Amino acid sequence: MKKQIRIQNPCPEKWENMQDFSEGKFCEKCSKCVVDFTDKTDEQIQDVFKKADGKEICGRISLIMAATGIILITNLTFVQAQAKNSFRITTKQIATDIINVSGRLIFKETQKIIPNAEVYFITKDKFMKSVTNQNGYFSLDIPNDLIEGENILYFNFDKLNEEKRKEHGEKDTINGYNYGNQTVVFSRKEKIENKKFQIDYKGFEIGAVVVVENPAPDYYCFDGKNISKEKFEKLRKENPHYQYFSFEGKEADIICKDSFIDKLYLLYSN
Question: 87 and 117: one domain?
Answer without folding.
Answer: yes
